[in-house]
Design goal:
This protein is α/β, with parallel strands linked by helices. Helices cover 50% and strands 14% of the residues. Strand 1, helix 1 and strand 2 form a beta-alpha-beta unit. Helix 1 packs parallel to helix 3, helix 4 crosses helix 5 and helix 5 (136-144) crosses helix 6. The longest helix is centred in the N-terminal third of the chain and has 20 residues, at 67-86. Bound molecules: coenzyme A. Coenzyme A is lined by residues 15-16, 18, 55-60, 98, 100-102, 124-125, 128. Coenzyme A (COA) binds next to helix 2 and strand 5.
Length: 251
């Protein structure tokens, strides 16, 4: 914890933070706990050590799977990524090194991504004779466009941090030693905003992505109506008119 921030670090550095079943379960539980914790305003996901964010799903687990447990493994990974995507609080990825396969899929499920200058990001699954299974085939094209995504998925080679920035895969690149502090500063700017507004704005974008323009605008108007009935709105508007900082109702 750091003030209103929760920093979640995948902690298997000897395996470059590869996601085995236990790590996926634990991450899932941590996100549930943090989402329900009123003291937490935003969540930062990162990896332990200076080499890897997450170097993928654990290949020793994948190597043993057949049709049914393969599908089951994909579903469990997908459920974690969807939980992060739908979390009411902003989730920021601090990509501090390799973000490959399930690692990139983890970063893709976060709201924004920042990379260290030594990071390498990619979906190398086809080089292992499999396809991305934790949402990569769906989230990557939605983020960077299908042409760029298909090249990354079909070629299987990672890109460096600067190329990731160029294609819109990450929002910013920082020297590795500064990455976490920079991401914390960005997260704290978000946390300084209205907490209900953050949750509803995220919901509008996330749910709207699966809707027609017309339905998405309807959703936005509904959520705008909801936020207009909150004490939070009154405080935000009053603070502006009284030329003071808003005091949000955060426990
Ligand atoms: N699953 C399981 N173990 C992994 C792993 C993964 N996805 N990625 C790395 N590891 C393990 C290695 O097996 C090694 O374990 P060991 O010390 O017991 O042999 C340890 O982490 C260190 O990795 P190593 O390969 O020695 O580091 P490196 O610096 O030479 O190479 C990578 C780094 C990231 C290029 C390389 O580890 C790699 O290609 N990993 C797999 C990436 C991948 O394909 N991910 C997608 C999976 S779907």
């Amino acid at each position: 914890r750091d003030g209103h921030l929760a920093i979640v670090a995948v902690n298997r550095p000897s395996k470059l933070n590869a996601l085995d079943n236990l790590t996926i379960e634990q991450l899932d539980g941590v996100i549930v706990d943090l989402e329900g914790d009123d003291a937490v305003g935003a969540i930062i996901v990162t990896g332990k050590g200076d080499k890897a964010f997450v170097a993928g799903a654990d290949i020793t687990v994948l190597a043993k799977q057949g049709v049914l447990d393969g599908k089951d493994n994909a579903r469990k990974g997908q459920a974690l990524m969807s939980r992060i995507e739908n979390c009411k609080k902003p989730v920021l990825a601090a990509v501090n090194g390799f973000a490959l396969g399930g690692g990139l899929e983890l970063a893709l499920s976060c709201d924004v991504r920042f990379a260290s200058d030594n990071a390498k990001l990619g979906l190398p699954e086809v080089s292992l004779g499999i396809i991305p299974g934790y949402g990569g085939t769906q989230r990557l094209p939605r983020l960077v466009g299908s042409g760029v995504a298909l090249q990354l998925i079909l070629q299987g080679d990672p890109v460096d941090a600067q190329e990731a920035l160029r294609i819109g895969l990450v929002n910013g690149v920082f020297p590795q030693a500064e990455l976490l502090d920079q991401v914390k500063a960005i997260a704290n700017r978000m946390v300084s905003r209205g907490p209900t507004a953050l949750a509803l704005a995220k919901q509008a974008v996330r749910r709207g992505a699966h809707m027609s323009m017309q339905d998405g605008l309807e959703l936005e108007a509904d959520l705008f109506g909801i936020i207009s009935s909150t004490d939070e709105m009154k405080e935000g508007m009053t603070a502006f008119l009284e030329k003071r900082k808003p005091g949000w109702l955060r426990k």
